Prior knowledge:
Two copies of one chain form a homodimer.
Chain A: H1 4-11, H2 15-22, H3 30-43, H4 49-56, E1 61-66, H5 72-87, E2 91-96, H6 101-112, E3 118-121, H7 128-134, E4 140-142, E5 152-156, H8 158-171, E6 177-180, H9 187-202, E7 212-213, H10 219-231, E8 238-241, H11 244-256, E9 266-271, H12 274-278, E10 283-285, H13 288-300, E11 307-310, E12 313-315
Parallel strand pairs in A: 1-2, 1-3, 3-4, 4-5, 5-11, 6-7, 6-8, 8-9, 9-10
Antiparallel strand pairs in A: 10-12
The first copy, chain A, binds a DNA duplex through helix 1, helix 2 and helix 4.
Amino acid sequence: MTNIRDIAKIAGVSVSTVSRVLNHHPYVSEEKRRAVETAMIQTNYHQNMNAIHLSTGKTNIIGVVVPFTNHPYFGKLVEGMMEQAGQDNYKIILFQTNYQLEREQEALDMLKYKQLDGLILCSRGIDWKLLLDYQEYGPIVLAEKTNPQTFSASYIDHYQAFSEALSFLYAKGYRKIGYCVGRQNGANSKQRWQAYQDFLEENALEYNPDYTYYDCYQFEDGANVALKWLEQKNRPEALLVANDQIAAGMVTVCQKHHIDIPRQLALIGFDNQPIAKFMEITTVQLPLFQMGQQLFQQALQADHISEHQFVPKLIERQTV
Amino acid sequence: MTNIRDIAKIAGVSVSTVSRVLNHHPYVSEEKRRAVETAMIQTNYHQNMNAIHLSTGKTNIIGVVVPFTNHPYFGKLVEGMMEQAGQDNYKIILFQTNYQLEREQEALDMLKYKQLDGLILCSRGIDWKLLLDYQEYGPIVLAEKTNPQTFSASYIDHYQAFSEALSFLYAKGYRKIGYCVGRQNGANSKQRWQAYQDFLEENALEYNPDYTYYDCYQFEDGANVALKWLEQKNRPEALLVANDQIAAGMVTVCQKHHIDIPRQLALIGFDNQPIAKFMEITTVQLPLFQMGQQLFQQALQADHISEHQFVPKLIERQTV
DNA sequence: ATTTGAACTGAAACGCGTTTCATGCGCTAT
DNA sequence: ATAGCGCATGAAACGCGTTTCAGTTCAAAT
C-alpha cells in the first residue's frame, strides 16, 4: 500500500505538499499539484483514515445511545440524526443498550478513548454525577430536560404533552383516566408521572394504581395490556399510551373482543406514526425527526451548550 | 493528556513494558506491572484508540448498509448483528442508503480507507463488478444469493419462500393470486418474480399485471395498496405481502371497508412479527435475528468465504 | 561445569497524515 | 534602494501505540 511519502517521492515533492493537495490547501503551484495528482492516480493511493484520526484527534463519528434500535420512536429519532450526519459528513455508531448500564458505559468509554467526537444519549441510565466526568472528553447531548443546564439537550416537554392530553380527556368527560408507558423511572416517565399527579390533584380525582401500566414499548405490549384490561374489574375508561404502536396493539385486541373504542375505552397515542393515521388513533404528534437533527447538530457544537424544547401537538381522530 | 511514554517514564520502565501491561501480555514481572498500573491510575491514563487503530490497522468497526433503519425487517436484522457485535467486542456503523448508490459508495470507501474492518450489505445497489474491486480492502458480506460464490453471504431463499406460499394458496383454492413487494429490481424481488412466474406456468395460470404491487415497505404502503385494491375492477383474491407491516396495513383498511378477510381477500405476510400474531395474519417466518448474527460473524472472517441459507416457515393463522 | 531455554526488558522501527516553522523568491510600497 | 508581504515549498516534529529484535538474567538439564 502506498502512503503519502511514496507519493511525495514519486511526484518529486515533499510530504507537506502532498498533504496540501489532499486537503485543498492554497499555495501549491499548478505544476506540482498535477504531479501529485498523477502519482496518486498511478498508484491508486488513498488516505489512511486511522492516521488522519490520530493526527487530527477527531474521527467524524458520533455515538448514539438508544435502548432499542428496532423501535419506531427511536427509529425516527435516529433517522433524523442520520440525515443530519449525512449532510455534515459524519458517521453514526449506534449503541443498543436494552437499558443495560454497561452498554451505556461502553459508549462513554469510546468517547473517552477518542473514538467518538461526541455522544448523544437518547436514554440515560447512568448517574448524573458520573456523566459529568465524561464531559471533558467531548460533547454529550441528552434527550431530556437537564436542570441545571450542564449538558446540551433537545427534548419533548413530556409534562406539557401529558398535561394537555389529560385535560383533553377530562374535557371530553372522562374521569377514570390512566396511562401506559415504558419504564417507571426514566426521566421522561417521571415527568409524565408528575403531570399525572398534578392533573389528578387539580381535578380532585383519586389515584388508582390499577389505571397505570408499565413496561410497554411495542405493539405486542399494547396487545397484552388490552388483555389485562379486559380482565380487570375496575377498568380505566381512558388511557394515555406512550406510543402509537402500543395503542395500535390495544385497538387490535379490543376490536377482536368487541370492545367499543372510544365508548368503553378511549385511547390517546403518541408520535403520530402512520399506523395511527390508518387506525384512526387520536395521538400527540412528536417532531422526532427534527429532534434527531437538532440533537445531532448539538453534538457537533463542542464549544457551547444549548437547549431545545420541542412542542407536541394533539391530533384528534377516532379513539377519543 | 498522558500517553504511553509518560506512563513509562513515571513507572520507570520502557514503553514496551507498558504496552505489555495494557495488552495483558505475559513476561512482565509483578513488580513492574504494579508500577505501571499505579502510574496509570495516578494520571487517569487511557489509550488513544485512534493510535491503536493506526498501529494495528484495524478498528473493530463493521459497516452495515441498509436501505432504511426505521423498518422492522432491517431492524430485526440489525438487532441480530448488534447482539453478535457486542459479544465479539465490535461496533457497528449504520449506513442508511434510501437506495441511493452514493451512500453505498460511502460505506465502501470507508472500508477502503481502513475505517471499517468489514462491510455487510443488506441491500446492494452497486454493480457486481465494481464490488469485486473492493474485496481486497476487507471482507464484504451480502444478504443475497451470490452466484458464483465470490462473497460471503447469508440469505433467505426467497424463491423457496414464495413458491411455498404460492402453493399453499393454490391448495386452498385460490387462483387469482398476486403479490406486493418493495423494489421491482432488487435481488430478492427478482427471485420472487421468478418464483411467481414459475408458479403461474406450472399451474397454467395467466399473468395479470393488476395483481402485482410495488413500492411497498411499511404499514402505510399496505394501507394504500388496500385502497387501490378496493378500486380495482379485476381484483386478486389472494396476495403475498413482502412483510407483516404491509399486511397489517391492508388488514386495517380492509376492516374499515368491511372487506372479509380471507373470503374476499387472502393475505400472507412475511417475517412473523408480533403484529402478525395479534392481527392473526398468516405469515412466513423469517429468522432475521439469526441471519443478522450470521452475517456479522461472516464479516469477521476475513480469510474464507461462506454461504448460509435460512429456511422460511409458513405459519397459518386467519388471513388465508 | 556447561549448555539450554524460559522469563523479562528496552531500544528502535513502524503505521501515516497533519501542522508548524523556517526559508527562498518575486513584487510592491516607501 | 530597501523594507515588507504574499506565495510556494520542504524539513522536522507531532499524535501514540504495537511489534520486532536483541539482549540480560537466572534456573533447570546434562
